[in-house]
Specification:
Elements: E1 10-16, E2 24-31, E3 36-44, E4 52-54, E5 60-65, E6 74-79, E7 89-94, E8 100-105, E9 111-116, E10 121-128, E11 131-139, E12 155-160, E13 166-171, E14 176-182, E15 190-197, E16 204-209, E17 215-220, E18 225-232, E19 235-243, E20 255-260, E21 266-271, E22 277-283, E23 289-296, E24 304-307, E25 313-318, E26 323-329, E27 336-344, E28 348-354
Antiparallel strand pairs: 1-2, 1-28, 2-3, 4-5, 5-6, 6-7, 8-9, 9-10, 10-11, 12-13, 13-14, 14-15, 16-17, 17-18, 18-19, 20-21, 21-22, 22-23, 24-25, 25-26, 26-27
Length: about 350
């Protein structure tokens, strides 16, 4: 008797906002051959674990507790290598800033950078076997055009460039990208080098690099613009500003996430507000990016989305409609098609693929 083949599956860690002790970090499993999704909570009792991340070997899982307090929010670590269910906290530390919303891991995986949105600062942690030691806190200052959202600095993300030499920090409140030099092993691993102003009122949120590292994509939350920069040796220059909405669109905006497909051929960005869409772009012969289409995300408030490792599917997480929706991706054209496959989950706001 032949041994039955194991069904192909994709797994994602799901960051959420929580309302009870029974909620926390979820594990999503997608079986494309069965057109099915499953969802289980693997770390309960964590308040607002809105961002989840692992290192390359996926030994440890890191998350934030996106809250405010005397010592800021928290970062927490879990051992992941031997288990995918009922995770136990390995270590936790305060982030020295309110509402931590983003985590970045250094290329050597010895440091973690935490962006504190309301605190307007960046915290650096040294990591040893999942144990966390805060070694540096950098405070931003500034404000910008949008008085209701940009009254002070709001650090929204930190992104290592492909060389690992530089870190780019998006400050939504001051409309600036900060460039820091990263040097592992120093007492203060980050040193400030330059501030790059964005267009007033943009609100830079998340960044992604092209596969060849020669372009940088910045999603501007408040204007819902995907800005394309040429990039090299730590220097950037704006090339294009691509709207994440049609000319006819009228309503609230709120761009959220940008992703480059695993094959490097297409770029996707999500827009919340009244749009609830995912926009797809491809590079044309002139070297510029052109719109493929603005797609309905299939739910309300697509705060985050991600692609499977092979690029065949895109999954969109919707905070307001409490659901995760699956799209099939055409690798040649970059086009998306809603598969009709979805699953309900409590306020899913981040998706991180794991093996």
């Amino acid at each position: 008797m032949e041994k039955s083949q194991e069904l192909l599956s994709y797994k994602f860690l799901v960051g959420t906002y929580t309302d009870s002790e029974e909620q926390g970090i979820d594990l999503l499993t997608f079986f494309p051959e069965k057109d099915s999704l499953s969802l289980e909570t693997i770390a309960k009792g964590i308040s607002n674990p809105s961002f989840v991340l692992t290192g390359k070997n996926q030994e440890f899982l890191y998350t934030v507790s996106e809250n405010a307090g005397e010592n800021g929010g928290q970062i927490l670590s879990f051992e992941l290598k031997d288990s995918r269910t009922a995770l136990q906290i390995l270590d936790s530390a305060f982030t020295a800033g309110d509402h931590p919303c983003h985590i970045a891991i250094s290329p050597d995986e010895k440091y973690i950078l935490v962006s504190n949105y309301s605190g307007g600062n960046l915290a650096v942690f040294k990591v040893t076997n999942g144990n966390l030691e805060r070694v540096q806190v950098i405070q931003h200052q500034g404000s910008s055009l949008n008085k209701s959202r940009q009254e002070s600095a709001h650090v929204h993300s930190a992104t290592f460039d492909p060389t690992g030499e530089y870190v780019w920090v998006a400050d939504l409140g001051s409309d600036e990208l900060y460039r820091y030099k990263f040097e592992s092993g120093l007492e203060n691993p980050l040193s400030f080098e330059e501030k790059i102003p964005m267009t007033s009122g943009d609100g830079p949120r998340h960044l992604a690099f092209s596969k060849d590292g020669k372009e940088l994509f910045v999603v501007q939350e408040l204007t819902s613009i995907l800005e394309v920069f040429s990039y090299g040796n730590g220097q950037m220059k704006s090339k294009q500003r691509l709207p994440l909405f049609s000319e006819e669109f009228k309503g609230a905006l709120g761009a959220a996430e940008v992703r480059v497909s695993p094959d490097g051929r297409h770029v996707y960005a999500s827009n919340r507000g009244d749009s609830n869409s995912i926009s797809a772009f491809r590079k044309n012969e002139s070297g510029n990016y052109e719109l493929i289409q603005h797609y309905s995300s299939g739910g309300k408030m697509p705060r985050n989305f991600n692609l499977t490792s092979d690029g065949k599917y895109l999954l969109a997480a919707h905070q307001e409609s409490h659901e995760i929706v699956v799209f099939e991706r055409n690798a040649e054209t970059g086009e998306l098609a809603n598969t009709g496959i979805s699953i309900q989950g409590h306020k899913p706001v981040y998706l991180h693929p794991i093996q």
